[in-house]
Write a structure and sequence with these properties.
Layout (H helix, E strand, L loop, with lengths): L2 H4 L3 H6 L3 H6 L1 H4 L20 H12 L29 H12 L1 E2 L14 E3 L2 E3 L3 E3 L15 H14 L4 E3 L7 H14 L3 E5 L4 H12 L3 E7 L20 H10 L4 E6 L2 H10 L3 E4 L13 H12 L4 E5 L5 H9 L4 E4 L1 H33 L12 E2 L6
Parallel strand pairs: 4-11, 5-6, 6-7, 7-8, 8-9, 9-10, 10-11
Antiparallel strand pairs: 1-12, 2-3
Helix pairs in contact: 5-14, 7-8, 7-14, 9-10, 10-11, 11-12, 13-14
Bound molecules: flavin mononucleotide.
Length: 393
């Protein structure tokens, strides 16, 4: 590739496919760096391959993320939280990868499935593929600071929207409310639909943020209850706390938006979420970034799904990189999935186009997997399509 294409100036960036969205983004441009401070390396835009996106992401994100051939928690990011790694020895992150890799797909080729339908209904919104962006915050302290908050929200939500699915807007523990509001302003001004991830702050602070999200065209809310251990990251006047069942019930009643409790890793806590009246749960260990040494999400998901037994919606995340991973998680009992680090890398490598490229790639891979396992629709995916290692059942 020519150097002129490699080094992207801000002017060229604005000429690219995100130009319209960035220039109309009210909350965004005020926080975008001036030409004088412009970093030399810029994300790619326009026509690009996934490999190019990954290579550019490496240049943008190192040393936070080295974009390893496999993102399995064993790269140079071990223990880097803040950063892109996992807590402690990154064993929870690794367990996500290992437990998902251990699930195998049963090939089935004698049937009438031709062009499978990968779309689902997600709380009233039709999405093209059962994966949405996971809430990921901290463009500076976690991702290296090459993208501004506005560029990041625009890339994630714009790219997901282009691919027919939903982006996500996060709420950083230490962020004052106006930073969160600015992210929502960016989303609102661009007209994209997304989910919003809230932190387990004090009840009144969560409810205040719920009101802002309700005005921003948000499809669903998550609260990552497993961030409760991060009170040390909170700043003056802000804190996070573990929640009781009564508090969960209060939060569910406080908003008309579907509320999903994120960070659920055991059947008994899934049961409490059902009792709270929550719309759903996200089976997640936060990418191994909160409590070190947890099991992998693919290994705990079947027992949680059995306990929930259809009484609330189940999402799951953890090292999802391919369409086959989506099929595995759905076969294990989830209705929809989230992808975190891979979307972040795609945003850094190719802005909205990189994100759309990754999401479309997942959809195409899922379609192939559905043909080869005999699923015409997402609802047809079930446990007979996978082989689960003994220790997981
Ligand atoms: C850099 C980074 C920032 C994150 N920030 C948040 C956050 O603000 N809220 C949240 O609910 N989860 C957050 N997460 C966790 C993700 O939502 C997700 O649960 C996790 O990354 C697992 O998905 P992955 O293995 O595909 O990355 C973050 C993860 C990463 C890597």
């Amino acid at each position: 590739m020519e150097m002129s294409k490699v080094f992207f100036s801000r002017r060229n960036l604005l000429k690219g496919s995100v130009a319209a969205t960035l220039t109309t983004g009210v909350g965004g441009l005020s926080s975008v760096a001036t030409a004088a401070e412009e970093p030399k390396i810029r994300p790619l835009t326009g026509k690009m391959t996934y490999e190019e996106v990954r290579n550019r992401a490496r240049e943008m994100m190192m040393p936070r993320c080295y974009v390893c051939p496999e993102c399995n928690g064993r790269g140079p990011c071990v223990g880097q939280v803040p950063g892109f790694g996992g807590m402690g020895a990154s064993r929870g992150f690794q367990a996500n990868y290992d437990s998902l890799a251990a699930v195998q797909l049963n090939s089935r080729v004698i049937h009438g499935v031709h062009v499978p339908d990968t779309s689902i209904d997600f709380f009233g919104t039709r999405i093209s593929v059962p994966v949405v962006a996971a809430p990921t915050g901290g463009t500076t302290y976690n991702m290296g600071g090459k993208l501004t908050e506005a560029e990041f929200v625009t890339a994630i939500c714009g790219g997901c929207s282009k691919a027919g699915t939903l982006g996500a807007v996060a709420d950083g523990i230490g962020d004052p409310i106006d930073v969160f509001e600015k992210r929502l302003d960016t989303l609102k001004s661009l007209g994209f639909k997304a989910i919003v991830g809230l932190k387990p702050r004090l009840q009144k602070d969560i409810i205040e943020r719920m009101r802002l999200a309700e005005k921003a065209g948000v499809v669903a809310l998550t609260i990552d209850l497993d961030s409760a251990g991060r009170a040390a990251r909170a700043t003056k006047g802000q804190t996070v706390e573990p929640k009781t069942l009564e508090q969960l019930k209060e939060l569910v009643k406080a908003t008309h938006l579907p509320l999903l409790f994120k960070g659920i890793m055991t059947p008994d806590e899934a049961e409490l979420c059902v009792q709270s009246g929550a719309a759903g749960i996200v089976v997640s260990n936060h990418g191994g970034r909160t409590l070190a040494d947890t099991p992998g999400t693919a290994s705990v998901l079947p027992r949680i799904a059995d306990k929930v037994n259809g009484r609330c919606y189940i999402m799951v995340d953890g090292t999802l990189a391919r369409g086959t991973d989506i099929e595995k998680y759905l076969a294990l009992g989830a209705q929809c999935t989230l992808a975190g680090r891979h979307f972040v890398r795609a945003a850094h490598g190719g802005l909205a186009d990189g994100v759309a490229l990754f999401a479309n790639r997942l959809r195409n891979e899922l379609a192939v997997a559905m043909v080869l396992t005999g699923a015409q629709t997402i609802k047809d995916i079930n446990r007979t399509m996978i082989t689960i290692p003994q220790s997981s059942c």
